[in-house]
């Protein structure tokens, strides 16, 4: 089976260094395997999305020499597929409606273990939660090693359809990974804890489980994950070389980072890419050249 990887950003802002690392890692893994690299825009949370961000992300990727092998997939066009998957779960009795407020769930330690004790409220729609019971999921991450999670202790009965009628990330991502034929998911280690939920959904829906490889997160000087919510600055598509050098160095490819042009750096990085070179930590300080937010006062 030919390798198929993907980069799946949310259009909540421009490409920043942390997301560049994830993009570069997934791109290099696909190219070094002689496979295909796809992009999926995860635009199913309209309140969080920034107008024009999806286009800006795609343009930035192109400036960094990373162009997908197929037209980008937009999750906003896939609602019927998520609805069909949800109905399969509901018909099989795997989900139940929940009228608990966030405050009520927080008061129970942030985890919901069914059945829902809140009385049905005919004036508003419920969220829908997936029953996890005593399910334990074990898998081998290709970078972080063996993982095991008892879903009830980490995730509880998690939401697959929100009160607003939006389908949750966990459901959408497994439906789309299967639809795109993804053979390996390369992404940041902030999603390592989500993987058992996704594997559980894949099994319930009869979908294939890809391999997983979770890259270290890039941290700023205050130890915060570089993210849009923490004020990470956008990388500069007009001069992509400094940020690309930093991203390649972060991925253990310092020699490739010393090449001249973007194309030369990427060619050297594909040549040198090896899982043994990748740092096995779940988080590391971002190197010089990364676009960082201002330190905390």
Automatic annotation (TrEMBL):
Q: Which UniProt keywords apply?
A: Aminoacyl-tRNA synthetase, ATP-binding, Ligase, Metal-binding, Nucleotide-binding, Protein biosynthesis, Zinc
UniProt key word ATP-binding: yes
Q: Can you supply a Gene Ontology BP term from the record?
A: tRNA modification
* Glutamyl/glutaminyl-tRNA synthetase class Ib catalytic domain segment(s): 4-105, 137-249
Q: Where does ATP bind?
A: 228
EC number, UniProt record: 6.1.1.-
InterPro entries, per database record? Glu-Q_tRNA(Asp)_Synthase (IPR022380), Glu/Gln-tRNA-synth (IPR000924), Glu/Gln-tRNA-synth_Ib_cat-dom (IPR020058), GluQ/Sye (IPR049940), Rossmann-like_a/b/a_fold (IPR014729)
What protein name is recorded for this chain? Glutamyl-Q tRNA(Asp) synthetase
Question: From which source organism is this entry?
Answer: Mizugakiibacter sediminis
